[in-house]
Specification:
alpha/beta; Cytochrome-c3 Hydrogenase, chain B; three-stranded antiparallel sheet; 49% helix; 12% strand; globular
Length: 400
C-alpha cells in the first residue's frame, strides 16, 4: 500500500499522525494543507469561464467537479439544462466513478497483495471513460451552461458500456457483474474470493486470512441528502469557512463514501451483522458499486432512468444563487455559487475529503479503534483503512 497516492495538482495534502502505546487505542491527528480558498479565483469570472477552467484544476474527479459547477451555475442563472442533458452528464460522472474504482482496485489492492497492477486494466478503464464521454458529448461541451450538444444516437456510448462490462467480467469478477451481484451471504462471497484469481478476489481472501475483516469498525452516521435551504443557511452563516473546513451536520461528523451509498445492499447488510462498517464490508461496497454501474448506465441511456435527482430535497434559493449536490467517486460533492450581473461574486466547494477526514470523522474513529503490538502492524492496518476510505488527495503517514 503506497503512502504516496498519485494525486497531485493544487489539491494539497493530508498529514496523518498515529501515535500508539502498543497497549490500547491509537491517538490520531490529521492536518490538511488543502487550499479550500481556491474557488476564490473564479470571482469576477463568467459561468463559461468557470466551467472551462475548474475541471482542469482537479486531477481527481475532474468530471464530477465540472458537472457540479455546471448545475450550480445553471441554477444561479435561472437557466436549468434539459433533463436529458442532466442525465447524460450524471452518466459520465458514474463512468468516472467506475474508472476511479478500477484504478484503486488495481493500484492499491495489488499493492497490498504484492503483485504488479495490470497496466492493460488501467489503460482500458481510462479509455472507457474517454470514449463513453465522447459518445454522449461528441463536441466535448459537457459542461456548457444551459446544456451542450448531446449525441442523438447513443450507440457508441452503449458500445462502451458493453466494453466496461467485459472488462469487469475479465479482470475483476471472473463472471458477469450481474451474476456476481446475486451473492448474498459471506459464505458465497468467500467462495468466490477463494480462487484469488483477480486483485479483487485476492484482496478479500487475504483480508479474511489476516483476520482483518472487521478492522476499523466505528460508529459514524451516513451523510443524508442535505435540504438545500438548510445547506444555504450554513454557507451564509458567519462560520461558513469553518463549516467548509470541518463540516458537521446536526452537530455530527458524517461519512460519505461508496460504503454509505451501498449500505442497504443485502450482501453488505449480511456482512454488517458481523463486521459493522469494517474493512471487509468497505472493500465489498466498492465491488458492489462498480458491478452495478453498467446496468445503471444502460437504464439511464436506453430508458431515461434518473441517476439521482439533482433537485431532490431542494428548498428555495434567492435569485442568482445556486447549489448542486452530486455523488463523486469518493463521496458527496457540493458546489455553491453566487452571481452578480452575470459574473461570479462568490464560489465555494465542499468535497467529500472534508467529511471523511474530519478530526472527528470516520477515519479518525476507525484508526483510534486499532490495537496493534508493533509499529509495522499498525502501519499496515492504517494504510489499509486510509485506502479503503480513500482521500481525494495524497497523504503522508507518520507512525509514532
Amino acid at each position: 500500500m503506497s503512502q504516496e497516492p498519485s494525486k497531485g495538482g493544487i489539491e494539497g495534502r493530508l498529514f496523518i499522525r498515529v501515535k500508539h502505546s502498543g497497549e490500547g487505542s491509537a491517538a490520531v491527528t490529521i492536518h490538511s494543507t488543502r487550499p479550500l480558498s481556491t474557488p476564490r479565483i473564479f470571482t469576477g469570472k463568467t459561468p463559461r469561464q468557470v466551467v472551462s477552467t475548474l475541471p482542469l484544476l482537479y486531477s481527481v474527479c475532474g468530471t464530477a467537479q465540472g458537472c457540479a459547477a455546471a448545475e450550480a451555475l445553471e441554477q444561479a442563472m435561472g437557466e436549468p439544462a434539459h433533463p436529458e442533458i442532466v442525465r447524460a452528464r450524471r452518466a459520465v460522472v458514474w463512468a468516472e466513478i467506475a474508472r476511479e474504482h478500477l484504478w484503486r482496485i488495481e493500484l492499491d489492492w495489488s499493492g497490498y497483495l504484492g503483485t504488479a497492477p495490470r497496466k492493460t486494466t488501467l489503460a482500458a478503464a481510462a479509455d472507457f471513460m474517454r470514449q463513453f464521454k465522447k459518445g454522449l458529448f461528441p463536441n466535448d461541451d459537457i459542461f456548457e451552461p444551459g446544456g451542450g450538444g448531446l449525441n442523438e444516437t447513443p450507440d457508441e456510448a452503449l458500445a462502451q458500456i458493453d466494453e466496461l462490462e467485459n472488462l469487469l467480467r475479465r479482470d475483476i469478477f471472473l463472471e458477469s457483474p450481474e451474476n456476481w451481484l446475486a451473492l448474498g451471504t459471506e459464505g458465497q462471497l468467500d467462495y468466490w474470493a477463494s480462487s484469488g484469481a483477480s486483485s479483487a478476489a485476492g484482496m478479500l481472501k487475504r483480508v479474511a486470512e489476516d483476520g482483518l475483516s472487521g478492522l476499523g469498525q466505528a460508529e459514524v452516521s451516513s451523510l443524508p441528502l442535505l435540504p438545500i435551504d438548510e445547506l444555504e443557511d450554513r454557507f451564509r452563516a458567519t462560520d461558513a469557512e469553518a463549516f467548509i473546513e470541518q463540516p458537521t451536520w446536526q452537530g455530527n461528523a458524517m461519512e460519505t463514501t461508496a460504503y454509505t451509498r451501498q449500505i442497504e445492499h443485502p450482501l453488505l447488510r449480511n456482512l454488517g451483522r458481523r463486521y459493522g462498517n469494517g474493512l471487509k464490508p468497505r472493500l465489498t461496497a466498492r465491488l458492489i458499486e462498480i458491478a452495478k454501474i453498467p446496468g445503471r448506465l444502460r437504464s439511464a441511456i436506453q430508458e431515461g432512468e434518473s441517476l439521482e435527482d439533482p433537485t431532490a430535497g431542494c428548498g428555495s434559493l434567492v435569485p442568482g444563487t445556486g447549489i448542486s449536490q452530486l455523488e463523486a467517486s469518493r463521496g458527496r460533492l457540493i458546489h455553491r455559487v453566487e452571481l452578480d450581473e452575470g459574473v461570479v461574486r462568490r464560489y465555494r466547494i465542499l468535497a467529500p475529503t472534508e467529511w471523511n477526514f474530519h478530526r472527528r470523522g470516520i477515519l479518525v474513529r476507525a484508526l483510534s479503534a486499532i490495537e496493534s503490538q508493533s509499529i509495522e502492524a499498525l502501519r499496515r492496518k492504517t494504510d489499509l483503512l486510509i485506502s479503503a476510505i480513500d482521500p481525494c488527495v495524497g497523504y503522508s503517514l507518520e507512525i509514532g
